[in-house]
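As a warm-up, study this chain.
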Amino acid sequence: MFKISEDNETGVESDEGMEFALAIIIPMIFSLMIYMSILLYGQMIGRSVVTEKSSKVVDVLLSSVKPNQLMMGKIFGVGLAGMLQYSIWIFMALLALFVTKLVFGFAIPAQIAMSNFVYLGIYFVLGYLLYGSLFAAVGSASEDEQHLGQLSLPLILFLVVPITLISAVIENPNSTLSLVFGFFPLTAPLVMLSRITTGEIPLWQIPVSIGSLALCIWFFIRLSAKIFKTGILMSGKNFKLREIVKWL
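Now compare it with the structure written out below.
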């Protein structure tokens, strides 16, 4: 039932058609999973910070912990829930593949090999830590959820842009466009995962991408902590991005 076209003697065209379809569909699915998860959990952190700030709960919390500890606690707390969800997804996907292979004898396509699920988990964690810290910082500078939406718009754009480029990245994973967005920190989690699932990139680029992204996360967390420390204690004004930058 998976056949696209059929050769009466060998079925070669059908196999090639299936491989071509998977080469496009699987990277898109993985990228959309990263996009939706990072956006969902990132905004969850931002809204949590805004709620606690507006209700003055944060004043009580800061009497017991430091601002940077509060920020990291939120990031790791929500992150653990996200990792649990991803673990369930990956387990169910692998179980479905195993059962399908066992019952129907289908070979597991290269695009959905175990290694790609590992990279899915890695880039989710890295992308989440990066955007989670930034959403926490933006949330600390927001007065309400409407203001949060305005301040977080640039972050959302950096998540949306890679999605619009996925087709071009899949078609040519080693183009200049793919390389630039694959190593730019705010777009790397989505683009690099798409490039990896095509199976057509130099292997050395994967550890370089992961290592450079980890360094950027460390840098962004430090910047976000400075913004969070200042913003969480300030209220009564809708700060603009240029004002927030001055807190660094």
